[in-house]
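User: Please write out a complete single-protein record containing the residue sequence and its fold in token form, without commentary.

AI:
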Amino acid sequence: MRKLYTTIIISIATLIILASSCDSNNPEGIPSYIQIDTAYFHAKFPNIQGSSSSKIVDVWVYVDNQIQGVYELPTVFPILKSGETNIVLRPGILMNGMLDTRIYYSFYDKYDPGTVKLVRGEITKIEPTFNYISPDFMTFAWIEDFENFSSSLKASNNSDTSVIIASGSESYEGNFSGKIVLENTNTYFEIKSSDSFTDIPYTGTAVYVELDFKVDTVMIVGLEAVYESSRIVQYPVIALNPKQDWTKIYISLTTEIGYFYDADYYNIYFSGGFIPSSSDDTIERKEFFIDNIKLVY
């Protein structure tokens, strides 16, 4: 693997600051530094893995097989080592978009450039590119990127509108995205996966929905559990707040699948607006955009 790092000599002023915090008679106390500005992601097999969209916000850093720390990007951090040093990075995300649920994403493989030459008093810049873990160890149960000018989402009986295909400047990447419009007497939408999922693991194995979205008002993403008796339970997992710019989110379904482990099958659903109480109820125009839906476990 090509090593994507360079070395930058820090300024004299910075060295003076560093030296003031170290014993001047103990040069071994001067740290080396690593700088990481951005973490990239690339889906090696787009035909089965879909888009390369990602939102990596942290790096989990391991030095010589020991955890060094977790750093929010962009970052520069010290390491009390020099010379050839083994550095491994794992990509950190915000589970469910929450700042207090920072985890490393187990479906992204570690970045291992091998040994990196560290020099005391110097900054080594690393530009990691992450990939999905081997297809042998994860399942892409559903990918919807709307690029076939069609959709694997269908409106439920409660919905008074359905998903349409957005293109041109309205699409996120590629040629097309999904779009739902509420306006006037079309006050509520509820769309769900056309295919049902029967083999989602419920024993604590990580289950996620990846999604890019841009919405004018709150949109619910939920899990629908369907039982042999035709009983249907809808469980709202997360409420996505309005976003004027496209945003990536990783939604965990691990716990929710465990709640409904005995269901016969599952659907993923999206909903927004309100169910009208009378035919006179109306709503101002609201637009919801979605793209790159993935169900992975």
About this structure: The radius of gyration is 23 Å. Confidence is low (pLDDT under 50) at residues 1-26. The helical segments are 12-20, 46-49, 254-259.
